[in-house]
């Protein structure tokens, strides 16, 4: 005799399985679409800093003690006095999003990207955030103001001795995410000029592309 109850149960179970598979596929497809949309949005918010080009206009930069400097495109500024050290890098944001600069670190010598990623805990906070709009020009500025600090003497000797040094910049997008560290090498050229070049970028909030 045909067991219609069993057949009905099996049919119900099969239908439930098909529905579950369809639901899983739909959810998976929806998650994939949401992830693609998220990545697309992040790419539109992501900044990327490079040195400005030689043909770019000079940057006029003022410090909190009313000390002003003018820096030509593609170059850098390094000046040591008895009371303060002034550093400036003209920059270009090649990314699609607003760049918000908030910390930096000075290192002696010409360091390349083969060195391990810098530790953000070693960075100095800027006294104010600096902003560079997408595909626009801007600058970074930093200063040492404590002559009793050991690094003050090291930086002064480096500048007066016309030796190369490295600046690591920590910045992110306008939402406070997608943090990145970009490494800039500063090299003396001629008698009084400094040339800036980028050597590496590190991602802090997502995987590096290398």
Proportion of helical residues: 25-40%
Q: Round the Cα radius of gyration to an integer and report it.
A: 26 Å
C-alpha termini separation: 68 Å
- Average pLDDT metric: 87
Q: Can you summarize the main beta sheet?
A: 9 strands, antiparallel
The low-pLDDT segments are none
Number of distinct helices: 2
By secondary-structure content and strand pairing, the structural class works out as alpha+beta
User: Strand share of the residues?
Assistant: 35-45%
The helix/strand series, from N terminus to C terminus, equals HEEEEEEEEHEEE
Give the tally of β-strands: 11
> Which descriptor suits the 3D outline?
elongated
Which descriptors would you attach to this protein?
210 residues; 9-stranded antiparallel sheet; alpha+beta
């Amino acid at each position: 005799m045909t067991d219609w109850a069993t057949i009905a149960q099996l049919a119900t179970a099969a239908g439930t399985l098909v529905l579950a598979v369809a639901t899983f596929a739909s959810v998976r497809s929806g998650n994939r679409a949401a992830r693609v949309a998220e990545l697309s949005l992040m790419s539109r918010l992501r900044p990327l800093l490079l040195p400005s080009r030689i043909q770019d206009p000079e940057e006029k930069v003022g410090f909190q003690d009313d000390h002003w400097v003018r820096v030509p495109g593609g170059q850098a500024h390094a000046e040591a006095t008895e009371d303060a050290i002034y550093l400036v890098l003209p920059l270009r944001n090649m990314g699609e999003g607003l760049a918000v600069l908030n910390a930096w670190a000075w290192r002696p010598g010409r360091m390349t990207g083969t060195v391990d990623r810098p530790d953000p805990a070693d960075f100095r906070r800027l006294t104010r955030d600096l902003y560079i709009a997408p595909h626009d020009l801007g600058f970074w500025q930093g200063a040492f103001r404590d002559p009793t600090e050991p690094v003050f003497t090291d930086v002064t000797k480096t500048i007066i001795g016309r030796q190369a040094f490295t600046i690591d910049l920590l910045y992110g997008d306008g939402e406070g995410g997608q943090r990145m560290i970009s490494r800039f090498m500063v090299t003396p050229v001629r008698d009084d000029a400094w040339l800036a070049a980028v050597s590496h970028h590190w991602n802090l909030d997502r995987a590096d592309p290398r």
